[in-house]
Design brief:
3 strands; mainly alpha; 3-stranded antiparallel beta sheet
Amino acid sequence: MYKNSKQMKQMDEQLLREKAKQYLVCYYEPCTCKEHCLRWLAGPYVPETNRVQTCVNVMNKDVRAGHCPFYRPDTPMLMRRGLRHLYDNMPRKVGTAIRMELETRYGHTTYYKYRNGKLPVTTEMQQHIANVCRKHGWTEAPVYDAMTEEYDW
């Protein structure tokens, strides 16, 4: 979609401004991944009106070693949204067990944000949902309401 970070910054300046208001940003200058990291790219867009901003601890040994656990690539990922139809073809007992496990893992409020499509279901979470389904005897692929391409903020 984007050829480089400079192009992404130009095309998504408004998005970066919006996210930077309350986003974990990074200012670690020596980082080798900074040109392709959403946290670095959002840093310059933190509003001057913010008195406090959360940022990556540049003194952290993993960050300094180049193994930053907070790295977010500047390339859109394939995400799914909505779990409203996940249980449509399942037996009630199986669907209830799966829903209970997902709700326990993600919390009631957050689970319903995923269910209603307000939060994207990341690739890792899609894999977890598939594993939970298999664990409870459901072998069909999970069904989602929509598929989108977006950044993994």
